[in-house]
Design brief:
single chain, 754 residues, alpha+beta, eight-stranded antiparallel beta sheet, 21% strand
Length: 754
Amino acid sequence: MSAGNYGNRGGAGNYGNRGGAGNYGSRGGAGDRGGNGYRVTQERFINPYNFVSINDAVRRGPVERGALSGAIACELETLSPLFIPNTTRDKVFGDTYAHSYDFFSYADLRRVKDPGSHYARPIIPGSSLRGAIRGACEAALNGCMSTCDDENTLYRRSPVPRQGYGIIEKDTDTGERVLYRASKAKWPIARRAGHKTGETLVGGIYLRGDYGPNTKNDAIMKYAPDQNGDKVEVRRFGEESREWANFIEVWRLYQQRQGPIKGVNQLGPDKHSGYKGYLKAEKIPVYYTKLDNSDFYYLAPAAMTKEVFSRTLKELLEKQGGHNPCERLAEVCPVCALFGLAGEEALASRLMFRDGVPAADGGETDWSGWYDTVRVLPILSGPKVSATEFYMEDAAGASYFNYDYFVNYYNYKEYDKTGRLIPKTAAVRQSLENPRLRGRKFYWHRKSVVVDHTASYPKQRTEVRPIKAKKKFRFEIVFDRLTRDELESLLWLLTFGDANGINAHKIGYGKPYGYGSVRVTGAEVSLVTLNDDLSLTRAAAEFAPKMPAPTSPAGETSLREYLRLTDYAKASDEVRYPRGDKGGRNGGTIYDWFGINKEIRRGAFSPEFNYALPKPLDGEANLALPGYERGDGGKGGNRGDIKAAAAPEAQSSGIPLPAKAAAGGAGMGTIKEMREAKAGARDAAREAAKGFGKTAARAVYDRDKLKRALGNYQYNPQSRKLLTGFISDFEAAPEQYKDLKGTYESVKGRYKNG
């Protein structure tokens, strides 16, 4: 079975909270009112791919070579149609579709006059066989994830709009980037003219938005000053910081894919502008948000945006058993010790896979009986690592989770002007301490192949002519200096224990749709020995396949998962991609299923996963998931109890909560009352302060801002100004600021003495 990973190195495998993160107030879809407009259907599907877990640490060490050299003669049978393209010529069967390929052969189809009527001798490339067997070895021997691009950017489109507005400037003294708080005004796109991002316009900084069919307005960000009229510093970023690097990466992802900077947009230069000149502006207008228990900021040029995560795939793999691709000769996993290592430190492979040829090759010239009918493959795409509900271990009890943080919802109460109770929810976003990847990606077997009968979007489809099922090939693996354990394990991985008639591999294209199931039905070993006269002798030898022995319970679980995923005897036609129908003109789509799966519980801007991908060993009845369609109801999913969030001590807006609410006994109505009481107290303080002089009358201090200023006053003139004014005002009117007495003592002790 062929392995795919989280972004392939070499192609081996194939919203509303009004206040943003943590703010109070919900703009729809609050609570579980059921007004989401969707329901589950009777349709069931088993997602085409699943994962072998990677919870056992990789064992690495120097290569230990053995004394066994020779070859393994193998027989292979196709259990389903198989397709591997001959890319010497595209449009073999016409130009209706984006691509039109014949099966792989040694023929150069550019030299064939009528390739559609030409049946060449079919060949299975050794590279395809090698990739499938290497994937099997990595799963069963707990090797590294060699094809995984661990430098791959992890990101996902944010499910909620960012409601923090800011302007970034560069501090010429320190070289840091400084984020200042701002407010936002609209600027109709009809008045864009020649205005560019970063220029001053109507008292603010202009932000020219990207193209969008529903775009009506650009934005003007205006500094939101404090009570003294000074700019409010929110955060400083070094240009080497992860936050700044992620901001650059978010911008990069908006660039044209065909341009010099690779991105994810590819609608043409008249569609996506990629925020031209954005990062070159002296004053960069941004949208931002942060987590409720972290000072990490997410910056972007748009409210609804791509969100680049602070963790890289490499970091996740390192923490999860060290499954990064091997890099050093002194420390290689058991699989790289066999298959070799590429990079700065290279290691030659001790296995060479020769091409597979028809087993009935006895001088035949007519191969037409080996070929199946020409058909169209359904649209295929690359791995969607952003689908964390499938690619990550379920963060138990969390409503929503990704590679950085998880979300839960805190229920509270508000009252309208008439005193009517209004139940509401607030999103609480907290950093996820130990995010875990699901593991190595493999495709389930299917009883029959999916044939695409859809005529729409022909330029996104590929036309192919595969090889029929029940055709036999033979190939050879030449091995060099293996140990006995390595050879016996390799034999088992080829045949699953002397061709057990149950398990099978997958190779080639179309694996999600049932193509490429193959079984190695025989493997005969011959050893090469060196004679006294330096000649070589090759003779048959008996070696029994030996199942690899797991070194831990986690390793045993992974091996069982691999055997279940490769079980052809349990192949099911329920294996297909999920479909969700939002009522659009294109009918049900995979994209709609993932969208509905996040919003069926609470609404579009309050994401909560309804289903997560089942594990291979969850039981036959639990492997299938439902489809979605428009309607009302059907919430619940397979994720058990979702834990309600405790009242946070402080939200990202910086508003402190009362202690009794944080203890969990009070509702959000208490918070509203607290705010009203604080507002009244401030007004009363202003009136009382009139007799203490002008400075005292105008100054209202926030405890959290003072603490932040105390942390950066050494390089921030605005913080020094704030602290000096606070000390002076407190000493002039201690009664007015008596609730800040502890803060005053801390500030005076550290600032005055520092």
